[in-house]
């Protein structure tokens, strides 16, 4: 009585929970809404194209050829930083597998003791002391973990992100531990590029107007007007944003902490992550180690779809020879039964942050391959 | 036909955040492993892991150099070069495999690499083999 299973290999990114989109077979990871990101790309590429088309030939001849060369380098750097920020994993924390979630639940229940029925259980918070400062770690009901310090759950991407800064629609991704420095370099170099283009637009208009008059200049290079407009508005926002993030970096704070006022006001000067030295803080954020992604996006896993439906009770012991298939649960009474484990769970909707019920029956899709690993260990004994 | 079943339970060692956000695991000995493995061995393993992570995350001369070089090339160099962190992670997975072979497997335990759990926990899988039922004689 063996079911015919069709096994196929899938990449792990196809089964990851959360609301991200993946491209290039898991190499690229972004948020779902990408419209504003395309707008950002369009504005940068469009404005620079106009600059290269209208201003650069004149400036290269009349001033110096270094001007367009430097503009090209700056433009390429900006695009590289933008793509790096947008396409990389910001530091997503994988959700807890069932065993880990249960383990944490048991610890919480042990810590809470007996709560009389009808009363609300106390909020799930763990206190840790970091550099003589008590930091509260909150429990994430979606990911079923106690969030590490500085991590936060992004509701747009539906992931917990380590050192969460903010979700940036302009880059179409969250900004977190892994891509913060690229984001900062993007804002910095984009500010420089904007100032550069703006300045040389003015220089170009002035130089040409001396020869031909102002109106003729505008007629000959209509792109200039558009560029000046775009640059003018971009300039203020980008310079402001760069300044703000420079301030945050010097204090070793995240945008999230700044908005919540975690280390300001009456808590000022108590940031436990700060080295109390601007240079050290900058060095740590910008020159620190490059953290690898802990989401194994391109790893392979088995996915089984039953070709013939066959009811298998929880205690069937199939001869191992028959299978490359998943042999979840039957031998492992602790684990979930096969009925609960469905390889292509339509991304189970998280039950929201205030869910008091630990949904033990609901499993994140990633549960399946891990159970495979354990049962195969068991089988091999 | 041999009918055996394994009870697999997991024991988790959590992160130690007392020194901030650096990657560090608690050296507290979990009670469930009391009669499975000696305290000293486990502590030694966790301490070695912690020291490896400290080395990976050290902000010093080498990380500055790596950062500046990468920045100058718009981080394209990372497509061909392995970062220091990745090198240390490889070293760690080799160490864990060695520890499993030498120490933990003979005691019926399996240590998993924290990177597989999002660097949140070091988990020990305990395997208890026993046979079920007497309907068929086991070999």
Describe this structure in words.
The complex is a heterodimer of chains A (381) and B (139). With 381 residues, chain A is of the alpha+beta class. Among the domains of chain A are: 13-93 and 166-287; 98-147, no CATH class. Chain A is built from nine helices and twelve strands. In chain A, the strands form five sheets. Chain A has a three-stranded antiparallel beta sheet with strand order 4-9-8, with no helix packed on it. A three-stranded antiparallel beta sheet of chain A has the order 5-6-7. Chain A has a two-stranded antiparallel sheet with strand order 1-12. Chain A is globular and about 85 Å long. By secondary structure, chain B is α+β, with helices and mostly antiparallel strands. Chain B has one domain (10-135). Chain B has helices spanning 39-56, 61-72, 84-104, and strands at residues 4-14, 109-111, 121-131. In chain B, strands 1-3-2 form a three-stranded antiparallel beta sheet. In chain B, helix 1 runs antiparallel to helix 3 (84-104). The chains are: A alpha+beta (381), B alpha+beta (139). The interface between A and B is large, with 51 and 48 residues.
List keywords for this structure.
heterodimer; A: 381 residues; alpha+beta; 3-stranded antiparallel sheet; 14% strand; B: 139 residues; 3 helices; 3 strands; elongated; disordered C terminus
SSE blueprint and pairings:
The complex is a heterodimer of chains A (381) and B (139).
Chain A: E1 5-11, E2 20-23, E3 28-31, H1 35-62, H2 66-87, E4 92-93, H3 98-112, E5 125-130, E6 133-140, E7 145-146, E8 152-154, E9 159-161, E10 166-168, E11 173-175, H4 180-212, H5 214-220, H6 223-251, H7 255-260, H8 278-287, E12 300-306, H9 367-380
Antiparallel strand pairs in A: 1-12, 2-3, 4-9, 5-6, 6-7, 8-9, 10-11
Helix pairs in contact in A: 1-2, 1-4, 1-6, 2-4, 4-5, 4-6, 6-8
Chain B: E1 4-14, H1 39-56, H2 61-72, H3 84-104, E2 109-111, E3 121-131
Antiparallel strand pairs in B: 1-3, 2-3
């Amino acid at each position: 009585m063996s079911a015919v299973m069709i096994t196929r290999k899938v990449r792990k990114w196809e089964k990851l929970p959360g609301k991200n989109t993946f491209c290039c077979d898991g190499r690229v990871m972004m948020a779902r809404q990408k419209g504003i990101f395309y707008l950002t790309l369009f504005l940068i590429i469009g404005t620079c194209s106009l600059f290269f088309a209208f201003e650069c030939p004149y400036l290269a001849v009349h001033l110096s050829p270094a001007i367009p060369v430097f503009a090209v380098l700056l433009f390429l750097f900006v695009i590289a930083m933008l793509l790096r920020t947008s396409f990389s994993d910001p530091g997503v924390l994988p959700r807890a597998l069932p065993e880990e979630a249960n383990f944490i639940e048991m610890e919480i229940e042990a810590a809470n003791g007996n709560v009389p029925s009808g009363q609300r259980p106390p909020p799930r918070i763990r206190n840790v002391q970091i550099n003589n400062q008590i930091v509260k770690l909150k429990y994430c009901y979606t990911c079923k973990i106690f969030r590490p310090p500085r991590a936060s759950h992004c509701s747009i991407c539906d992931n917990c992100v380590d050192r969460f800064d903010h979700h940036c629609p302009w880059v179409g991704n969250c900004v977190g531990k892994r891509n913060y420095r690229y984001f900062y370099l993007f804002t910095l170099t984009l500010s420089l590029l904007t100032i550069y283009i703006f300045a040389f637009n003015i220089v170009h208009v002035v130089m040409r107007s001396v020869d031909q008059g102002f109106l003729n200049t505008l007629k000959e290079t209509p792109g200039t007007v558009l560029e000046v407009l775009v640059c003018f508005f971009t300039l203020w926002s980008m310079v402001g944003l760069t300044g703000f993030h420079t301030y945050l970096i010097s204090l070793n704070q995240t945008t999230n902490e700044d908005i919540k006022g975690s280390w300001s006001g009456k808590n000022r000067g108590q940031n436990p992550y700060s080295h109390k030295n601007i240079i050290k803080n900058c060095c740590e954020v910008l020159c620190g180690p490059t953290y690898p992604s802990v989401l194994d996006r391109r790893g392979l896993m088995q996915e089984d779809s039953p070709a013939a439906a066959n009811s298998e009770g929880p205690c069937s012991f199939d001869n191992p020879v028959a299978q490359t298939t998943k042999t979840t649960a039957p031998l492992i009474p602790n684990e979930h039964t096969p009925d609960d484990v469905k390889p292509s769970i339509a991304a189970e909707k998280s039950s929201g942050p205030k869910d008091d019920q630990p949904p033990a029956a609901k499993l994140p899709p990633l549960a399946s391959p891990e159970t495979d690993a354990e049962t195969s260990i068991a089988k091999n004994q | 036909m041999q009918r055996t079943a394994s009870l697999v339970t997991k024991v988790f060692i959590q992160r130690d955040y007392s020194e901030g956000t650096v990657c560090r695991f608690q050296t507290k000995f979990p009670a469930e492993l009391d009669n499975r493995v000696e305290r000293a061995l486990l502590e030694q393993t966790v301490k070695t892991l912690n020291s490896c992570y400290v080395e990976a995350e050290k902000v010093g001369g080498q990380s500055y150099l790596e950062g500046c070089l990468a920045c100058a090339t718009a981080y394209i160099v990372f497509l061909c070069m392995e970062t220091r962190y990745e090198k240390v992670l490889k070293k760690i997975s080799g160490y864990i495999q060695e520890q499993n072979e030498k120490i933990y497997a003979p005691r019926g335990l399996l240590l998993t690499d924290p990177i597989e759990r999002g660097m949140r926990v070091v988990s020990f899988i305990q395997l208890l083999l026993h046979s079920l039922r007497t309907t068929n004689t086991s070999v």
